[in-house]
Design a protein that fits this description.
With 217 residues, the chain is of the alpha/beta class. The chain has helices at 16-26, 56-64, 83-91, 102-111, 125-133, 140-154, 169-184, 193-216, and strands at 6-9, 30-32, 36-37, 52-53, 68-74, 77-82, 95-99, 116-121, 162-165. The protein has a 5-stranded parallel β-sheet, sandwiched between helices. A 4-stranded mixed β-sheet has the order 4-3-6-5. The N and C termini lie far apart (45 Å). The chain binds guanosine-5'-monophosphate.
């Protein structure tokens, strides 16, 4: 099966990163696309694992060198998907998982039309607020900025192939896994299926032929 990018987006705090982490831990057919960013690491984040943390100058150099599939400005920092990340994961036969915002999701689909875009929404405004409050180091100004951005992002949900309401994490993870499995069965993602189907068709045809001859005899 030809691997395809799985793009997960959500308003900040709706839970897509947790879903992505749980999926990656549970399945070997996925690889996390480590984005580059100019924002400083949060406590517990590791360079080269959660993000490639770059200086503004290094980020700009890589933009100029054409190293990004897409990049954007978010809450005063730059974030971008590296071409090398996607190539590395596709090259290993796995689906790249991208945890990116909506502009990036659109751009990824332009470059990789076979991508599957999943939008995760919170069950309520209160729950979103609660989850954002739990994000380490989020200051009040940036919290308001993230909530305002969430309002804009919610208007764009129809851009996505699937929308999931994240009521329960385990259930949300199972739903994304089901989406992956169903998408994997599309014939266009399975070119190797064509000769197998042709062979099956020949065998069924031969069987019908034999039965017809048997009935005539
Ligand atoms: P955070 O600072 O909370 O890790 O991420 C802020 C936002 O940037 C999130 O919505 C996240 O999905 C998005 N983001 C992370 N990496 C990328 C990227 O490579 N490209 C784009 N377009 N957005 C990204």
């Amino acid at each position: 099966m030809t691997p395809f990018p799985l793009v997960l987006s959500s308003p900040s705090g709706a839970g897509k990163s947790t879903i992505a982490r749980a999926l990656l831990a549970a399945r070997e057919d996925l690889g996390y696309s480590i984005s580059a960013t100019t924002r400083p690491p949060r406590p517990g984040e590791t360079d080269g694992k959660d993000y490639h943390f770059l200086s503004a100058a290094e980020f700009a150099r890589r933009v100029a060198a054409g190293e990004f599939v897409e990049w954007t400005e978010y809450s005063g920092s730059r974030y971008g998907t590296l071409k090398a990340e996607i190539a590395r994961i596709l090259g290993s036969g796995r689906h790249p998982v991208l945890d990116i915002e909506i502009e990036g999701a659109r751009a990824v689909r332009d470059t990789f039309p076979e991508s599957v875009l999943v939008f995760v929404v919170p069950p309520s405004a209160e729950e979103l607020m609660r989850r954002l409050g739990g994000t380490g180091g989020t200051r009040a100004a940036s919290l308001v900025q993230r909530l305002r951005r969430a309002v804009e992002e919610l208007k764009e949900a129809a851009v996505y192939d699937y929308v999931i309401v994240n009521v329960d994490r385990t259930e949300a993870v199972a739903t994304v896994a089901a989406i992956l499995d169903a998408e994997s069965k599309r014939p266009r993602r399975n070119p190797a299926l064509e000769p197998d189907l042709a062979e099956l068709g020949r065998e069924v045809g031969a069987l019908a032929e034999r039965l017809t001859l048997g009935a005539e005899a």
